[in-house]
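Anyone opening a protein record will find just a pair of labelled lines. A complete record is shown below as an example:
=====
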Amino acid sequence: MKKLTKSATDRQVSGVLGGISEYFGIDSTIVRVIFLISVFAGVGSPVLLYILMAVLMPEPGQSGDGQSFGGKYGSSSSRRSSDASRSVKEAKPVEKQEEDDWSDF
């Protein structure tokens, strides 16, 4: 059973519209265009509804099903361990070059 969660990969502000598009299986651009049209048309209060959903919708992996989500928005400990394993390149000294002659300008 699918659960409505914020999107982890299709985020512009908080992932609400991306999560809605993933839940219904449609393109996120269509959901965003419909949202903007409803904002400018003044239909209900789409901005208040968006803020409410941003607060109430769970992040991916926090839906209570015991699954955790890694990747781009994964835990910071996985980022630290990958940063520590990278090697650091030494900087090469810059060779001294002749001074440029700017007298012709």
User: Anything to note?
Assistant: Helices lie at 16-24, 28-41, 46-56, 76-85. Confidence is low (pLDDT under 50) at residues 65-81. The radius of gyration is 24 Å.
